[in-house]
Amino acid sequence: MATPVIDILLSPSSIIPAQQAVLNRIHSDPGIPSAVNTSKSFWLKDPHPTIDKAQSSTLPEKADIAIIGSGITAVSILYHLLDLHSRQSHGEVPDFSIVMLEARSTSSGATGRNGGHILPTGEEYSAMKGLLGKGAAVKLLKFRFAHVQTLLDLADRLGVAEASQARAVQFVSVYHDEHEFHDACASLKEMKKDLPEETKSFKAYEAEAAKKEFGLAYATGAITGPAGALWPYKFTTAILSDICTKYPKHFRLETGTSVQTISIDSNTDAAYPHVLQTNRGPLRAKHIVHATNGYVGHLVPGFRGRVFPLRGQMSAQAPGQTFGFQGTKHSWLINYGDKFDYLTQLPVAPPASHGEMMLGGGIAPASRQGLAEIGVADDSALSADIDVHLSGALSAVFGHGNWGPTQGNSVKYMWTGIMGFSADGFPWVGKLPASLTHRESACTSKVGGCEWAAVGYSGEGMVHAWLCGKALAILIRGEDGKSVEDLRSLEEWFPAQILISDDRVKNSKLPITINKL
């Protein structure tokens, strides 16, 4: 499936040397996330008091499962591993140990830097259906749609809805091009026919109706539907804090602990064949889970050219003085041709938030159509072009009269974050073959133990990550002879296109030179 990144690389207006530079970065080692000089994210302004920085006096020597990363994917995997065990053992304490390794502070990567949207618009449905067929396209869309209610229900059930500002909203996908709006309406019509129950509340608005209903200045139309929004960092850290309290003997969170290399040494301790060399010493593990998204190519070199970093830019801005508060009602997708911005408004809930507009995107006006951001794993710097766009976009989108003036500095925060983009357009979830790890697989040993990954959400982590984490937890438990019933039902709800397979490994890698793209 084509991705926006591929479209940019193939654009006739792109300069060949710049395109080749992008491919060079895509095939390079993304490195380890830097713990210094990162841009300051609004989401991280109030660090969690107990687990933002959590580190044992000495690194554990062994773990049954080592999870690398501490964002929403890692937390989902952890949560579901423990939940699966609890259900299967009728509440007995876990019979396995888990260590979570984070190079920086807890959830400070993409989860602490994204847009906070749970936004499955379904705009790709026609393209999916044409490529994969109706059945597969419907399954993929249902999987994405399921994240809205799953995350909102979970936040409520765990008692973290208020703290994480989890809320149901209506997305408004705004168009500024008549042809693009026409194509979107055609896709919506097809989607409504094939998924009538899931899309019954979706609606299209022509230009004048959209402008009047949503206070827009230049819209050629809009499409609306159900969505959600939350404060991702507060969501994941609340869950992690609870798990740390409940399972102090079975779970350890180790921040400031970067994994530098992985090797196999089954001779010394066959039960824990993987050796993770960290900046604090070695850790041996039975299973390793890679939940590092855009950085996965560092420890899994076979992902280079298949999953690669892309730097996105976000802002937190004060609303204009005449803009009516919509934080508990709407979120927005603002389309400009084949590029878009994304926007939510936070609740008025001092001291945490004061109705800030959380606007991200800006690739449309970026230098060389955004080529400079592709393959970049450094979240310390900002793009001046994107800054200029994001800083002035909202008054134009909503109209200067509807927006009004702002008091003082309207842009409170501007930061970047690293996404993991997939060359074939789908996430990668499952057991890692040696063709990706480039090391002997421990799966063939008598005691088992494998490497796993859930990565490559292509900028749509909030409608992929949580249930991808659940699926991976089921697969890991299944490898150890547990969760058999869940394994059988997995194929009923989990899209096959997301699973890691030999065919995907063979057919998904981007070429090294631009003339072969």
Automatic annotation (TrEMBL):
FAD dependent oxidoreductase domain residues: 64-473
InterPro entries per the UniProt record, alphabetical: FAD-dep_OxRdtase, FAD/NAD-bd_sf
Pfam families: DAO (PF01266)
GO annotations of cellular component type: cytoplasm
UniProt-listed SUPFAM superfamilies: FAD/NAD(P)-binding domain
Top-level taxon of the source organism: Eukaryota
Name of the protein: FAD dependent oxidoreductase domain-containing protein
Organism: Didymosphaeria variabile
